[in-house]
Please model this.
Amino acid sequence: MKRLVAVGSVGLLCCLLVACSADDEVGANGENDVNQQQNQDDGDVVDDADDGEDVGEDAGEDAGGDADVGEPDADAGNDDEYEPPEGMVFIEEGTFTRGCNVELDDECNEDDPDSIIGYSIPYKHENPPHEVTLSAYAIDIHEVTEQQYQECVDDGVCDEPFYDDMYDGHGPDYPVVNVTAGDAMDYCEWADKRLPTEAEWEKAARGDDQRIYPWGNEEPDCDRANYDDCGGEMTPVGEHPAGASPFGVEDMAGNVRNWTADWFDAEAYDEDPVTDPEGPDSGNTRTVRGGSFAQGASSLRTSARYSMEGDSPESFGFDTGFRCAKGVEQ
Model:
């Protein structure tokens, strides 16, 4: 059992040993802190060589208008030569535009000094938008559940989540949370998969039409996503099919945030290669995507990207889980 010390939170749950995560509408003052984190060796830079883990279309209308809501394209991800494992969806090789679409999304205007999301990181880290080409891959339709993760624990491969008197699990069909990025990598490797890269996660969430949200460009509601206006409680996986992405991937916006394989770097988009980018070679914490039940609507945007507060490989959050991906040749 891992030891967790939690401190107070405004309106929600908890904080971590060192730093708290903030709502996307919260500024640098850290009000309404909603995340529970653990921080060991704060600020130490960890290199991938030490980490020891590998970092591994049909969308809606074009970017000028709203895409269809909640009806995955029947042709998206079809391929005669590859059948994805059960619970995953296949995403074809191809090119999409990653980053914030400033023509549609006024919340990520890099010229606006007041534009911030989560942890007071400027929206400009979602810019510039740029084309990225990805090899074919498969990705989990839902986040890994507590029951699935427990099987890895029972096999002696995965560490237990960081339980305490405020979190002792929600149920077998709920996303597993309170796990570090390393824990997530251990599970995915055990399952013969891997964490998705940031680029893979974003393509799976938005397709190739630069939509603001997985379902299109219409504003969020509680039928499509579980965020802070929807009761402030986690739900089991798969309860918001109306919010599915063009590929049929669910809960890419809200409920729990998702770890990705990339080290977080606010300037990564200025330097990333345009083919199968894997992010920086080193960093302090992996990138988190997707927003959660404890965050506001802005965190649900498909381009939103941020790090875990605490800047440590041992950071985790009570609203942060993960899903796995798999290369076609993996």
Remarks:
- Residues 1-79, 113-122 have pLDDT under 50 and may be disordered.
- The domain at 1-330 is CATH 3.90.1580.10 (paralog of FGE (formylglycine-generating enzyme)).
- The chain has one domain: 1-330.
- The radius of gyration is 18 Å.
